[in-house]
Automatic annotation (TrEMBL), chains A, B:
Domain ATP-grasp, first and last residues per copy: 102-286
Protein name: N5-carboxyaminoimidazole ribonucleotide synthase
Lineage of source species: Bacteria, Pseudomonadati, Pseudomonadota, Gammaproteobacteria, Chromatiales
EC numbers: 6.3.4.18
Top-tier EC class: ligase
Length: 362, 362
């Protein structure tokens, strides 16, 4: 069985790796030549909106998916006229627009930070006076890893923020006071079956995910997160893996955003869970039974940003699992990750400390 | 880093899959077009002894290994003049000749069944009267999965056995009475570091491995097996993974044979051990630190022989990990395997029973 993957980054690569043992072969479309996925499946180098390329994929593959949420909805919709696309272009569209996304959360009764669309400096000032400060002005589309965002700390910041982002569709969001950032990796099959991984706790640095690990949290928090996850999956008639980013606040969970794809905060599932998020995404879209999402051991995942650490030194740490995406180094770029597994919490802490000394993010 | 793999069967495929996250890319040589390895790395279709093909591999790769033990020693030696080959062609040569192999065991003080080379019917009869019956007449070379072997149960069987195998280099081996068949998956790095997986217990059917799982055994047995493993690894100045097949007998362990490669009885290490045998083979030959060989959970591996079971039904079993090699079905052919993991022995037993009902070997 061949599946088409729009986007051949590291997520596509890891999807393709998970597919081989299942008898599922990936075929990629990505405008970047020699993208990471191309090591595991043939890559067609073309724009996502190239109809000839999409036509060929549709001929070779029985269904399609994508590895990042900024694939043009038009491309996914065009492909959907020929072969099934999971998750649906509609889910993709929701995630691409912060206003639609937050409105959907609100409609479903999932708490969010206060927000308001902003189309002029006057509207920005009005929104600030309604929502309060600090607040964050964000582009509604194509933001990732903290890009396309400006913080407003005082009323006088409005002008500069408007100067930087004005002219695009914008949204002002209130700032939520939270104890920690969490994410829920959820999966829904074509038959509606659903499964959830244990909540992950995430630490960011300069807007980029740095550390992710199964969260030490009360079962009630997991239940609350899964309730929000179910609402979202069912409303979108979602198929595949979805990541729901949440803030853990005094009054409960507050949704930040969702990604309609496998997610960086679920990479620890490769070694840490019975079934990885990558395999479960494939199982879901290929209409196979979903796999067990339980934790197998203590684990934590650390991104390698900008530079890769010394491979020998990392592999000398017991329980270290190295993941080199094969990308050329560039500051702020995710080049790989290391997952540490350990039989107990204290060994994991010791191993994390060893790893920290080897990693220099840039 | 590119490595050359002579042989692109399922073992080569699983080596290549383990290599991608480590930044190691496989390039295959195999005379069979579209072999399983070719899904994960480019395959050159040519004979192993094709010097032009070997020359090209040597240009593209920094070292070489192989995925089956019947690669011609000449090909490995030719390649070794250009790039390092691990395990060495010398280790390969020992494993290709049952007489050399058994003699090596004896030299190292590792117990074996009684054996004697046989070059004529008269020698066969003499060997039978010395070794006793039952005994097995085997070709010294190119036997696998029970092929090239004839059982002798009474003196009168000599003629028929000679008729079937005579003309090749032969060896007569006494039959060992054993409680069970075990194997030790061992790994040795380029710096001499060694590591061993827990002994595996193996069940064969019609000469083909059917079930393999970490053995429930006394620590003293593991110690004895590792002592034999160390003797063998050191004598051969071995680099990579080696599988030592052993009989568990009343008086202790008796060596049967060794395979100078990753081994079917170590497939459960992919999900069941901290580091898989495939990753550890790559770590060893690439001069990286060896990975932890401890068991992570209860597990068992079942081969799919001749036909693949229904994928949906297998994946509905909790803790089932499906491995489809992408080969066309043929009776007696290993097409894939399923590894079951479980948090405890009783769930594993229940899962194995479910799996057994889905598998029909042919």
């Amino acid at each position: 069985m061949n599946i088409a993957i729009l986007g051949a980054g590291q997520l596509g690569q890891m999807l393709a790796l998970a597919g081989i043992p299942l008898g599922i072969r990936a075929r990629f479309l990505d405008p970047q030549p020699e993208a990471p996925g191309s090591m595991v499946g043939p890559q067609r180098v073309a724009d996502y909106s190239d109809h000839a390329a999409l036509d060929q994929l549709a001929q070779e593959c029985s269904l399609a998916t994508f590895d990042f949420e900024n694939v043009p909805v038009d491309a996914a919709s065009y492909l959907e006229q020929k072969i099934p696309v999971y998750p649906s272009p509609q889910a993709l569209a929701h995630s691409q627009d912060r206003l639609r996304e937050k409105t959907l959360f609100r409609t479903l009764g999932i708490p969010t930070a206060p927000f308001q669309p902003v189309d002029s400096l006057a509207e920005l000032k009005a929104a600030v006076s309604r929502i309060g400060l600090p607040a964050i002005l964000k582009t509604r589309r194509f933001g990732y890893d903290g890009k396309g965002q400006v913080w407003l700390r005082k009323a006088a910041d409005c002008g500069a923020a408007w100067h930087e982002l004005g002219g695009q569709d914008l949204i002002l969001e209130g700032v939520v006071t939270f104890r920690r950032e969490l994410s829920l990796i959820a999966v829904r099959g074509r038959n509606g079956d659903q499964s959830f991984y244990p909540l992950a706790e995430n630490q960011h640095h300069a807007g980029i995910l740095r550390l992710s690990r199964p969260a030490d949290s009360h079962p009630a928090l997991q239940t609350q997160a899964e309730r929000y996850g179910r609402l979202l999956l069912d409303r979108l008639d979602y198929v595949g893996v979805l990541a729901l980013e949440l803030f853990d606040c005094e009054d409960g969970l507050v949704a930040n955003e969702f990604a309609p794809r496998v997610h960086n905060s679920g990479h620890w599932t490769i070694e840490g869970a019975v079934t990885s998020q990558f395999e479960n995404h494939l199982r879901a879209i290929a209409d196979l039974p979903l796999g067990d999402t339980h934790l197998r051991e203590q684990c934590a995942m650390r991104n390698c940003i900008g530079t890769l650490p010394d491979r020998d030194a990392v592999l000398a740490i017991p329980g270290a699992h190295f993941h080199d995406y094969g990308k050329s180094p560039r500051p702020g770029r995710k080049l790989g990750h290391v997952t540490l597994t350990a039989p107990d919490a204290s060994s994991l802490a010791a191993r994390l400390e060893m790893l920290d000394q080897l990693l220099v993010d840039s």
